[in-house]
Amino acid sequence: MYKYNDFDTAFLEERNRQFRAQVERRIDGSLTEDEFKPLRLMNGLYLQLHAYMLRVAIPYGTLSANQMRQLALLAEKWDKGYGHFTTRQNIQYNWPKLKDVPDMLDALAEVNLHAIQTSGNTIRNVTADHFAGAAADEIEDPRPIAELIRQWSTDHPEFQFMGRKFKIAVSAGEKDRAVLKAHDLAVRILRNDAGEIGYQVLVGGGLGRTPMIGKVLNEFVRQDDLLPYIESVVSVWNQHGRRDNKYKARIKITVHEMGLDKIRELTEERFALVRPTFGGADLALFEEIKAHFANPAFRAGDIDAYQAAYDSDPVFRSWADTNLTAHKADNHSIVTISIKAHGQTPGDATAEQMRVMADLAEEYGYGELRISHEQNVILPHVHKNDLPAIHARLKDHGLATANIGLISDIIACPGMDYCALATARSIPVAQEIATRFDALKLEHDVGHLQIKISGCINACGHHHVGHIGILGLDRAGVENYQITLGGDATETAAIGTRTGPGFAYDEIVPAVERIVLAYLDIRDSEEETFLETYRRVGMDPFKAALYPAVEKKVA
Amino acid sequence: MPRPFTPKIITANDLLEGDVIYYTAADTWTRNMSEAELIEDEAVSQLRLLEAQKDALTVVGIYLTDAKAGEAGPEPTHFREDFRRTGPSNYRHGKQEAAANV
User: CA of B43, closest CA in chain A: separation in Å?
Assistant: First the structure.
C-alpha cells in the first residue's frame, strides 16, 4: 500500500491548516457563505438536509487496518457511530459539526487519508477495481496507476476550477468491476500483440440526466505517455466543454456534441504540446509507487480446515459460495463482506463493525481492506484455512450475510433521507426489497440480480446500469419510482430501458416482486440469469407482469 | 395566469450545527417548525425573506417554502420539508432524536 513521503505529509498538513483557518474565518464572519462554499467543497464538506456531511476519499478503494480503525474513531468521536460507504469508494459522515471538521481532517491525515477533491468541479477520487492486486484475471495491479493519477490530479493548478467534476476509474481485469464505461475517463490496462503493457483510454461515459456509455478514445497508450495523454484529454475538455449550462458541462456532452474523432484530434494536438513538458519525473515516481504495491508474501499450507467447514456447515458453505472470489495465489480467496444485512442501510457500517473488519484484516488478511463501488468491504487476500474463523467472527457482528451479487446486495444512494439534491427516498426502498425477498426465501433461487436505486436523476445509485434500476422522483409532491430493466455495469455495459409509468412508494416493492416472479417463470433454466433472460425475451413479458390492468384494457 | 400565493415559512440551516432552523415572527430562529412564522401574503414574504437574510453570517441557505396552518402551528405540505423537520427514516437521528431526548 502507498505510504506518504515527507512531501505528501507536509502537503496535507498545510492543506488542513489552510482549511482550519478558512473555517475560523467563516465562523468569525470574515467569509460569507458564497466565499466559503467553494472552499469547503474542495475539502469534501457539504451541507445536506439535516446537517453537514464530510466525504472522505478512499483512494482506489484501498484501506489499511489502521486506516479503517481511524474511520471508526471518526464515526464514534464526531458522528453518530457509523459511516456510509459510497458508490465512488468514499466514506461519508452524515452528522459532523462545522467546528469539528478541521479536527476530523487532522485525524485522517494521521493515517494518510484526506477529503481533498471529493467534491467541487475538480478531478475526483480515482476509483479502481476493488479486487485490484488479488484478482485472478488481472494483467497487473491497477492501483499504482490510480495512485499516480491521484498525485498528479491533487491540487493540479489547471484543474481546480473546471466547468464540472471529472471522474476517473482504472481497471486491469478482463472483467470490468469498476464500471469503467460510466466514467468521464477510464483507463483499462491491457497487453498489445507484442506483449507490452499499455492503456486503453475511454472517455465520455457517465450516468445522471443524460446517461452515456464511454467510448474508446485511444486503443493503446504507451506507459510513458499515459499521464501527459490524460492531461491532454482533461485539458481539451476543460477548454471546449460547455460552461453555459451545468447539465451539459460534463465531457460526455462534449464528446457527444463535438464527436469522438474531433476530441481525438484535439487531444493529439494538445498532447504534442504537453508531452515534452513531462521530463520523466512522472515515470520515476511511477516506479517508486509500484514498489509500495508489491504483493504480500502469500503463505503456503493446505486447506483442510476450509474443506472440513465447507463440507459440514451449510451456513458457511452458503456464505463461501456467495461471498468468495477466486484469488491469483494458491489456496487464497478474496472475501467480500456484505454490509447489507437484510433490512439494513446499504453501505453503512458501525464503528464496531469497522473495527472488527480491521482486526480481521490484520489477523488474517495481510493488513489490507478494500471498499467496492457496490458498497461492500473486501478482505482481498485470505488463506482459505482462515475462512471458517473469519466467518464465525463476521457472524457475531452482523457481517456474515451471504448475499453478494444477489437481489438484496443493492446499491442505494442516500436519497432524501440525507441528500439535499434528492427528489425521493432510496434507502427505505432498498431495505424493504431486501426484507421482502428474505421473507420469500427466494434470493438464492433467483441468483445473480443487481438492483440499483437512485433518489434523483443524478444517478449516484447507478440505476441506469442496474439489471433492475429504480429512480425516485417527485411527481406533484409525491414520491414516484420509475423502473428500468436491462442495465449492465460490466464490460458489456448497457443503459437500462424504462418499463413505463412509475410506481408510488407503497407500490414499488410489489412491482419489483412481479418482475422477479415473471423472470422465474420465463427463464429457460436455473442457470439463465435475469439479465440473460431479459436479453433473450425483451421487455414485453416484464411489462405484462408489471402493468396487468393496462395490458388487459389494450386486449 | 400566475399561480395564487400559498402560505410560506422561512427556513435555513444553522452555520455551526448544520441543522434545520425556521424564522419566527420575532425575527429569531427556532429549531421547531411549529414556532415558525406562517406568512400569508406574497409581498410580506419577500420582505420577511430580506429581513431573514440579514442573518446570513450565522445562517446558511435561507429560503421560503410552502407550509399550512396546523393545530400547533405551521406544518409542511411537501414530504421534503417533512423529512427536514423530522430526520432520516432509516435511523431515529436528527430532530426526532432530539425530541425523544427532551
Answer: 25
Smallest CA–CA distance from B88 into chain A, residue: A417
For range A304-316, the mean pLDDT:
98
pLDDT in tens, A73-125: 999 999 999 999 999 999 999 999 999 999 999 999 999 999 999 999 999 99
Given a cut of 90, whether residue A399 has pLDDT beyond it is: yes
The pLDDT value recorded for residue B2 is 77
pLDDT digits (tens, 9 = 90+) for A136-179: 999 999 999 999 999 999 999 999 989 999 999 999 988 999 99
Between CA A288 and CA A53 the distance in angstroms is 35
Structural domain harbouring B30: 8-97
Number of domains in chain B: 1
Contact A80 B93 (CB under 8 A): yes
| Residue A284 scores a pLDDT above 50 | yes
State whether B89 and A428 contact (CB < 8 Å). yes
CB contact under 8 A, A477 and B83: no
Nearest to B61 among A47, A348, A425 (CB): A47
Domains within chain A, CATH numbers bracketed: 6-109 (3.90.480.20), 134-292 (3.30.413.10), 304-396 (3.90.480.20), 412-554 (3.30.413.10)
Q: Do B83 and A51 touch (CB under 8 A)?
A: no
Residue of B17, B20, B88 lying closest to A418 (CB–CB)? B88
Residues of B in contact with A412 (CB under 8 A): none
Contact B57 A52 (CB under 8 A): no
Q: What beta strand segments (E) does A9-88 contain?
A: 45-47, 52-57, 62-64, 82-85
- Antiparallel, parallel or unpaired: β B59-69 and B74-76: antiparallel
Task: Tell me the pLDDT tens digit for each residue of A38-61.
Answer: 999 999 999 999 999 999 999 999
User: What is the predicted pLDDT for the residue at A555?
Assistant: 47
Q: How far apart are CA A172 and CA A500, in angstroms?
A: 37
Out of B16, B61, B90, closest to residue A98 by CB: B16
Whether the pLDDT of residue A552 is over 80: the answer is no
Q: Is B56 on the interface with A (CB under 8 A)?
A: yes
pLDDT of residue B102: 55
Nearest Cα to Cα of residue A337 among A390, A389, A372, A376: A376
Q: Split chain B (102 residues) into runs of 10 and give each run's mean pLDDT.
A: 90 98 98 98 97 96 98 97 96 89 61
β-strands A215-222, A324-326 pairing:
unpaired
Inter-chain touch A416–B80, beta carbons under 8 Å: yes
The DSSP H or E segment spanning A270 is helix A260-274
DSSP conformational letter for A52: E
Shortest CB distance from B78 goes to which of A48, A428, A477?
A: A477
Interface test with A, best of B15, B19, B101 (most A CBs within 10 A): B15
Q: What residue of A is the nearest CA neighbor of B87?
A: A50
Q: Note whether residue B2 is domain-resident.
A: no
Q: Give CA–CA dist A485/A470, Å, rounded.
A: 9
The rounded distance, in Å, linking the Cα atoms of B85 and B69 is: 15
Structural contact between residues A143 and A368, judged by C-beta atoms closer than 8 angstroms:
no
pLDDT for A549: 73
Q: Tell me the mean pLDDT in the region A217-240.
A: 97
Interface predicted TM-score (ipTM) of this complex, two decimals: 0.96
Question: How far, in Å, CA of A215 to CA of A498, rounded?
Answer: 23
For residue B1, tell me if it sits in a domain: no
Place of cell 420582505: B47
Closest Cα in chain B, distance from residue A47 (Å):
7
